[in-house]
Amino acid sequence: MSTSTARKWLDYRHLALGWLWIVLAVPSVLWWKDSIIWVILLSLYANAESSFAAHQAKSNRTQETKG
C-alpha cells in the first residue's frame, strides 16, 4: 500500500465505517430475528452516527488548518 493510498484511507475511514454499519443493519435484522431487534438497530445507529460525526469533525479540522 503506497503512502498516498494509506493517507486517503486514514482521511476517509470514518465515512467508510459509517456506511459499513448501515450495510450491516440489513443482515442484522434478517438473520437475528429472534433477538431484540430494537437493540440491534440502536447499536448499529449509534455506531454509524459516531463514525459520521468523527468524519465530519475531521473534515472541519482539515478545512480550518488549510484556511
Task: Explain what this protein looks like in three dimensions.
The protein has about 70 residues and is mainly α. About 90% of the residues lie in helices and about 0% in strands. The chain has two helices and no strands. It has helices at about 5-30, 35-65. The longest helix has 30 residues, at about 35-65. The two termini are about 30 Å apart.
DSSP strand (E) fraction? under 5%
C-alpha Rg (nearest Å): 15 Å
- Name the shape in a single word: elongated
Described by strand count, sense and barrel closure, the largest sheet is: none
Mean pLDDT score: 79
Tally of helical segments: 2
Low-confidence stretches: none
Please give the share of residues in helix. over 70%
Count all strands and give the number: 0
- What structural class should be given to the helix and strand makeup? mainly alpha
Whole-Å distance between the termini? 30 Å
| SSE arrangement, N to C | HH
Quick summary:
This protein is 88% helix and 0% strand. It is mostly helical and 67 residues long. The chain is elongated.
Comma- or semicolon-separated keywords:
single chain; elongated; 2 helices; mainly alpha; 88% helix; 67 residues
